[in-house]
Amino acid sequence: MKQESEALYQAIHKLRRKGTEIQEQYEDHTANEFRILHLLKMHPEGMKVSDVSTKLEVTSPFVTQLINSMEKQGVIDRRRSSDDRRVVMLMLTDKGEQAARKIETYMHHFFDGLVAYLGDEESRKLTELLHHVFDYLDTQKKQREEDAK
């Protein structure tokens, strides 16, 4: 592995590890649970499991496992759609709303602090670089899917 590749690998590994440490220190929910809480907060009318899995780019069975756990925690309810009784919608409970607000407040504080630390220009550069990395990852995923055909 080239020196630049190794340095990038180490930096990304450290970023993931630090992110996990921060999450475990300040949140009562896993990163995936937070993502679901945040998504459902943005969709107060509720969402289907399939729509959640599409938005989060994970499988429906994975979302179902998370939802089962979150339902036991009392942060999510399953409700039948008023439009189509066959459709089950995921909705936040009052406890889920409180958890989502708490986590969002923390995240806003964290990222406001990061922007203040980096400055506006460095923050814009980092955002652009991350989007560029995401484009590369999407391209690699599509290539693997094509190669598998």
UniProtKB/TrEMBL annotation:
<keyword id="KW-0804">Transcription</keyword>
<feature type="domain" description="HTH marR-type">
    <location>
        <begin position="1"/>
        <end position="135"/>
    </location>
</feature>
<dbReference type="InterPro" id="IPR036390">
    <property type="entry name" value="WH_DNA-bd_sf"/>
</dbReference>
<keyword id="KW-0238">DNA-binding</keyword>
<protein>
    <submittedName>
        <fullName>DNA-binding MarR family transcriptional regulator</fullName>
    </submittedName>
</protein>
<dbReference type="GO" id="GO:0003700">
    <property type="term" value="F:DNA-binding transcription factor activity"/>
</dbReference>
<keyword id="KW-0805">Transcription regulation</keyword>
<dbReference type="Pfam" id="PF01047">
    <property type="entry name" value="MarR"/>
</dbReference>
<dbReference type="InterPro" id="IPR000835">
    <property type="entry name" value="HTH_MarR-typ"/>
</dbReference>
<dbReference type="GO" id="GO:0003677">
    <property type="term" value="F:DNA binding"/>
</dbReference>
<dbReference type="InterPro" id="IPR036388">
    <property type="entry name" value="WH-like_DNA-bd_sf"/>
</dbReference>
